[in-house]
Amino acid sequence: MLQYPQEEPDFGVALSTSLVLFGFDGSDLQVLLAKSKRAPYEGALFLPSRYIAADDDLMLSARKMFKQLFGYEDPAMIEQLQAFGKVFRHPGGRVINVAHYALVRKSDFQASNWDENDMQWIPFSEVPDLAFDHNEIVQYAKERLKRRVKRRPVGFGLLPDKFTLGQLQNLYEIALGKTFDKRNFRKKLFKTTLLIDLDQKADGRAAGQHKGSQLFSFNKEKYQKMKIQGYDFVF
After folding, report:
1. Do 44 and 145 sit in the same domain of this protein?
2. DSSP one-letter code for 235
3. Which distant-in-sequence residues (6+ apart) come within 8 Å of 149 by Cβ?
4. Are residues 132 and 25 located together in one domain of the fold?
């Protein structure tokens, strides 16, 4: 039978949460990072993070931070990753980080709601050495994104309301780290019946949209159903 130890243990452990936020600007997938103003990582980039009080709910804390950054809450957008708890991951003491991630539209970002640190978007494939163990967290989130992209139509949440097939393919290629044959990619997409042809052409002013390319939106009803059920989107 399990028993408590005779001596009272030292509960000198803090909790924090970080958000890995992937955004798409129409041509490139990016990660939102903050610049530290505190030693020993002054000037280094790190994930948007906050400490969690003893009576704080983990997901509510992540949602609160998300709202500070984007001005609204959408619980369905945020997904918990895992706890990162290496003993010496934080120079200030034992801090266990329960990280989360979300797919967002960059246009929703409200930098003024994060006054303490400078915020910047860094390309998905160019994330530098980060403070703490945040590179490990970002890599874990990237692997989670790969799995989600293959099983759920999550990519549509990153796209503008009207997008081209080139934008969609570019997004999937960056997320999965591979290139696809254009014909096979589009054939696979049309089989999902997710796409709605808007019978409109891009004017070339939006990032990542070539002038004259066909514009599409997605079938919201089909999209919501496939988000729940999942599907095999393997190329």
Report:
1. yes
2. -
3. 155, 172, 175, 176, 233
4. yes
C-alpha closest to that of 131 among 42, 199, 62, 57? 42
Question: How many domains does the chain divide into?
Answer: 2
Separation of alpha carbons 154 and 152, rounded Å: 5
State pLDDT tens for residues 181-229. 999 988 888 887 888 999 999 998 888 888 899 999 988 787 777 766 6
Classify strands 29-35 and 45-46 as parallel, antiparallel or unpaired.
antiparallel
The span from the CA of 234 to the CA of 82, in Å, is 25
Q: Which of 92, 116, 150 is the last residue of a domain?
A: 150
113's tokens = 């709601």
DSSP 29-92: EEEEEEE--STTSTT-EE--EEEE-TT--HHHHHHHHHHHHHSS--GGGEEEEEEE--TTSSTT
Token pair 């790190």: residue: 46
* Domain assignment of residue 182, given as a range: 153-229
**Do 100 and 178 fall into the same domain?**
no
Examine residue 107 and state whether it is found in any structural domain, yes or no: yes
Report the amino acid identity of residue 52. Answer: I
Contact 21, 102 (CB under 8 A): yes
pLDDT tens, residue by residue, 86-128: 888 888 888 999 999 998 888 888 866 565 558 899 998 899 9
Predicted TM-score (pTM) of the model is 0.85
**What is the residue-averaged pLDDT of the chain?**
84
Task: Answer yes or no: do 34 and 92 share one domain.
Answer: yes
